[in-house]
Amino acid sequence: MADSLIESARAWLSDDPDADMRAELDALMDAAAEGDPAARDEIADCFSGTLEFGTAGLRGRVGPGPNRMNQVVVARAAAGLAAYLRENGGGTVVIGHDARHGSALFARVTAEILSGAGLDVLLLPPHLPTPLLAFAILHLRCAAGVMVTASHNPRRDNGYKVYLADGIQIVPPADAEISAHIARATVAGPVDELPRGTTWTTLGDEVQQAYVARAASLVEAPSPQALKVAYTPVHGVGGATFLRCMDAAGFAAPHVVTSQFEPDPDFGGMPFPNPEEPGVMDAVIELARAQGCDLALANDPDADRFAVGIPDAGNWRMLSGDEVGWLLGWWISAGHRRRQGRHVLAQSIVSGSMLEAIADDAGVPYAQTLTGFKWIARVPDLAFGYEEALGYCVDPAAVRDKDGITAALLFTEMAEHLARRGATLPQILDDLALRHGVYATGQVSIRHSDVSRIAQVMSHLRAHPPAQLGGLAVERVEDLEEPTGDLPPTDGLRYSLAGNSRVIVRPSGTEAKVKSYLQARVPVESGDLAGARARAQGCLDALTQDLRALLT
What pTM, to 2 d.p., does this model score? Predict the structure, then answer.
């Protein structure tokens, strides 16, 4: 192991105030000294890089070193944020945190550093959802907000989301300016020399009460024959808030997966506590089947995302993120009381583009943005925004971020109203396909243990663009680092294929993955919906096979 890494590790031991992190690093160094190659690799990964602060804030594994989430990294991030805020007028900062390992500690460290910098600090009660933090920024008229969470990442991870006064996650140039302040705080001296304070205010239940009241106001009280719902927060922090919202809105209490209801930083042993992952929805769907429910709902661990399973032709299936987005977009654009004077339907570029046809059919404006609600929430006059990764913004006047709780509430209302009319969700999806064509969407994600491989894959694709994908000719290749139109530059490639199909490839912003987003569009001819769906699925299967080969 290089002497520079050993020196860096020893310097860290003298700087890190966390006894657990020091003990973990001591054990790694002892094992490395005895010739353990895994320990050497781990130290190299901890110290040969830096956890970069960007538009997603910070996110990474909890552990020692500058390339991990720990007290030192968090304190310097808080110092950089404090310097940026003081440079831009100061103000009040509200802080929230989930139930992950280290979350409460990182929230307290952030409060100490911001308080020590002379800022007013409000600390939310423990274990609240991310959408509630986004709500609190606008509700309390704060200058910024910090949410300590890694959302649906693996249990070893944690993260640090930063929002400014507009209630939206940061974008350039604010991210670069905060990062520059963090760099200055890093070289200024040991972390224990950063000024710390103790004068923050710990809030009570008032913000959650206001959020629940706002959420309940979005929906109409159900009929006496309200639907039966099964629900799981997937071991995260959304459960209590969701139940309060359902009760305040007048819905019957859902059946809950009790084994997954209480917050658990280990997520019951799930490697990836994400409702998109195979098996994560199994328990709630089984509960729904056993209880004769009409819907199976899930939030991800910080409750900013929402997933749903439905009965369909005698079986249960999960709706895709796109299908949920299309249904909510149809419900809102049809004027069901939710637009509050707002008009635009918006989506990320990687999401299935049927929403554009739905908006056009309803006579309302449509917009497309880069991936992430830091972009979607900035669309002027936004009424509804979504991205295929289970993210939905149904109340942008109050929560300018994805919100899995209000989205689940609105979806439940929609399903209940349809049932009252004798209609079903599959029937609405059929009607949309007959009207606009079949949009078959999917995703291929390749996880890399060596993060440098991601850049190599993207570089190879730029140098060697494919001539066809899934048997369809590639008619146009767009490098999104050099975009045309209104989109800011981003690392990604868009392939327009024959027949209005398309593929987008990009690195994940939160995980060590290369992700591709596939869409096959097939018109419905002579009312033959089954045939159109079969053709679209065949095209999607061929695209999936080619993309797996291409990305590996």
Answer: 0.94
